[in-house]
Amino acid sequence: MADLSSNDDGDTGPHSGHGPVAAVPQWVKVLAIIAVAFALLFAVAHLAGLGLGGHTLLGHRGGTPDDTMRPQR
Amino acid sequence: MMTPRLRKISLTIHVSVSVGWLGAVAGFLALAIAGLTNRDPLIVQAADLAMALIAWQVIVPLSLAALLTGLAQSLGTKWGLFRHYWVVIKLLITLFATAILLLHMQPTSRLAEAAARASLSGTDLRALRLQLTADAAAAALVLLVAATLAVVKPPGLTRYGAHRQQRARR
């Protein structure tokens, strides 16, 4: 949300060099494309087996909890 | 609007919790990689338990604090919440990261529960470990983008921001 560096008192305040822009800036478009690609990758990775799998251990392991756990030594 | 003193206090808290969030995710990522790649059950168990501890007691509180202090910082200053593209995008990133984080708390907790009950190696629950590692890496990357936006503040007013600025000039 707001900035990570002092700004309102500095040289890069909200109204310095940030004049009205009719079109969407180029960097926003590039970031949007990257975000969509990232979201698709995230969704595909989860659906393809790295999946959230219902967010349970069984969903990830495809078996019962005893299948791979060894007893505590 | 905040007074200058209050704005500086709020900004200091926001910067601290936001950078702390990124740092805690980096720590979580290191533990996730250790749990994924190590064959020593003791190290894997320690990593699994520490991941849940860091996630619940550091990452979740810091993410919520970053969201709240960011909202306060935006709404309490001239930056506003919907006037500049970088602020809107940073808000979306924070909301997305917080939502994904909360969604992944259950598998993190279950992994810790499994580790507490049994001795696991890195090859056990491999899909879950891979997922948590990939998610932590993605989260670190996304938070780095948010931090970069906050420092660089790329120009660009939203339609709402431009409209408000024009109204203010009249």
Give an overview in words.
Chain A is mainly alpha-helical and 73 residues long. Chain A has 2 helices and no strands. The C terminus of chain A is likely disordered. The longest helix of chain B is centred in the middle third of the chain and has 35 residues. Chain B is built from 6 helices and no strands. With 170 residues, chain B is mostly helical.
Choose one word for the global shape of chain B.
Answer: elongated
Order of helices and strands of chain B: HHHHHH
Rg for CA atoms of chain A: 23 Å
Number of helices of chain A: 2
Helix content of chain A: 40-55%
User: Approximately how much helix is present in the residues of chain B?
Assistant: over 70%
| SSE-based structural type of chain A | mainly alpha
Fold blueprint:
The complex is a heterodimer of chains A (73) and B (170).
Chain A: H1 26-50, H2 57-61
Chain B: H1 4-37, H2 41-75, H3 85-103, H4 105-117, H5 126-152, H6 159-169
Helix pairs in contact in B: 1-2, 1-5, 2-3, 2-4, 3-5
